[in-house]
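HUMAN:
Could you generate one sequence with tokenized structure?
ASSISTANT:
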Amino acid sequence: MISKAQAKYVQSLHQKKYRQRHGAFLVEGGKSVLELLSSGVATESVWCTPEFADQNRAKLAAGPPPGLLSEAELAQVSTLATNTTALAVARRPPEAPLSPALALGALVLALDEVRDPGNLGTLIRLADWYGLPGLVLSDTCADPWAPKTVAATMGSFARVSIWPRPLAEWLGALPAGTAVYGADLRGDNVHRAALAPAGQRLRQLVPAAPVAWQSMFSPADTAKRLAKVPLPPLPPLAPAEPALPPLPPARR
């Protein structure tokens, strides 16, 4: 059972201003909740169905005692159209230090104008998959702690650092000799590019549409090299079906 005050608090976290005010965010779906509990990120509360609690009793013991809700009650406080397992309220983790010399040979993904929460969550998940330490986000990106973003990360939000920064200023303050790669359709094939020249301490890949490049900064001034991910060739089209013979004229 969830009280009216608790339900109101959970529902308030659907909105960015309340996530910022409370320093908390929602984690929805059974898999993401279990990832949260195993990550060490502080968890305020967990709400789940009795069936989910019975199936995951040992893993749920890592967090606060879960409150049991019916699927209908869970749907009332969730942003998901169908959430039949669990949700949790987590504390926003403190920002990890972002040094200009982050790590020898590290690759940091810097994003600009990624406004769709689902796309941003997917990029966070990919950064986790490839072992990147974190992402630098401009203020034109979606909220990384929005429920849709967190859901799209599939648990990677707990393993990848997020650094909100004024992107043009941050790139301009990088040490001399830092390699900056800009994602652009006119760039070189990234699969054939040498992204790790000897002696460079930090490398950046900055995805941005050509319009974003022009509105923020010049690729020639900021990105030392442009790169692109080529699309695979499309399969050949199947031969067209032979045309059907014309119908005989209708009899009168």
User: Anything to note?
Assistant: The radius of gyration is 24 Å.
